[in-house]
Design a protein that fits this description.
The chain is an all-alpha fold. It contains 8 helices and no strands. The two termini are 18 Å apart.
Length: 142
C-alpha cells in the first residue's frame, strides 16, 4: 500500500464495525501511534510502538490506515504548535477525538475525508513519515 493512498472503503468499514471490543483492541494501537506526533524525539519509542503493533495482530496495511486515517488526523496539529504535547496524549481524549471524527456524517465529513486524500495529507504525516517507515520496516522483519 502506498503511503499516500487513502482507502474510502476502509473508512466506511471502520465506521460500521467499531464495536466496543474493536475499540478496546484499537486503543493501545491508537496510543502507540500517537507517540509519533509528540513534540519530542520519538526514536526512543520505536521498540515500544513496534511491540504494541505486533501484539495487535492487525496487518501492516490496516496499521498504516489506522496511522493515516484515525490517529494522524486528530493529533497532527500538535507538531504545528509552538509548544506541543511532549509527554503523551491522554488516552481518553485521544479515543474521544478519533471516535468523534469517525462518526461524523454529512457534507462536512465528506469534505474532511476528501481533504485527507491529497491537500492535507502532507500536514498529517510530513513530520512522521520517516518514523513510520522505520517502524513499518521493523514490523516487516518480524
Amino acid at each position: 500500500i502506498h503511503l499516500y493512498k487513502v482507502s474510502r472503503d476502509f473508512i466506511i468499514k471502520i465506521m460500521k464495525i467499531l464495536s466496543e471490543a474493536e475499540i478496546l483492541r484499537r486503543r493501545p494501537v491508537w496510543q502507540a501511534l500517537s507517540l509519533l506526533w509528540l513534540d519530542n524525539e520519538v526514536s526512543g519509542f520505536y521498540n515500544h510502538i513496534v511491540e504494541v503493533l505486533q501484539q495487535s495482530a492487525y496487518s501492516i496495511d490496516s496499521l498504516e490506515q489506522i496511522y493515516l486515517l484515525e490517529v494522524g488526523p486528530v493529533v497532527y496539529t500538535n507538531l504545528l504548535q509552538v509548544a506541543g504535547e511532549w509527554q503523551g496524549f491522554d488516552s481518553d481524549w485521544l479515543e474521544k477525538r478519533i471516535m468523534e471524527r469517525l462518526n461524523k456524517t454529512g457534507p462536512t465529513a465528506t469534505i474532511s475525508r476528501w481533504l485527507l486524500r491529497v491537500p492535507f495529507r502532507f500536514l498529517i504525516d510530513h513530520a512522521t513519515r520517516d518514523d513510520w517507515q522505520i517502524i513499518r520496516q521493523r514490523l516487516l522483519l518480524q
